Amino acid sequence: MDIKSQRHKVSGMVANLDREGEKTIHRLHERCGGSEEVHAVMKDDLAGGKLPSDDFGENAAWWWIMILAHNLNAMMKRFSINWQYFHNAIVSFGSFFENF
Fold first, then answer.
1. How far is 84 from 82, CA to CA, in rounded Å?
2. What is the CA radius of gyration of the chain?
3. Whole-angstrom distance, CA of residue 82 vs CA of residue 66
4. Of 9, 24, 39, 87, which one has the fewest beta carbons inside 10 Å?
5. Residue 65 and residue 33: Cα distance in Å, rounded?
6. Contact between residue 63 and residue 48 where contact means Cβ atoms under 8 Å apart
C-alpha cells in the first residue's frame, strides 16, 4: 500500500460533556452549515466578497460597515419577531450609556 498516493482526512473532537459520545457527535453534525450560510450572506448579499481598494484602511472600513449592516439586519429580524426583546434591548442600551 502506497500511502503517498492517497489522501486522508482525519478529524477529532474533544468534549467534556456528561453525555454519550454518539449524542455529542450528532449535535456537532446538526450544527454544521450554519456558519457557511452566514459567510455566504456576508460575501454575496452584503458585498464582503470583493474589497474596494488595495489600501488596508479602506478595506477595513468596508469590512466594518459590512459587519455592522449584517448585525443590524439580524437585530431587525429579531426585533420584528419579538417586541419584548426589542424593549429589553433598548432599556439595557440606555442603561449602558447612563453609567458613563
1. 6
2. 21
3. 24
4. 9
5. 24
6. yes
Q: Are 70 and 78 in contact (CB under 8 A)?
A: no
- Could you read off the pLDDT of 20-35 as tens digits, one per residue? 888 888 877 777 667 7
Distance from C-alpha of 82 to C-alpha of 11, rounded to nearest angstrom: 39
Grid coordinates standing for 93? Answer: 442600551
Query: What global pTM score does this model have?
Result: 0.50
Is the Cα torsion angle 14, 39, 73, 59 positive or negative in sign?
A: positive
**Angstrom distance (rounded) from CA 88 to CA 68:** 20
Q: Write down the pLDDT at residue 80.
A: 74
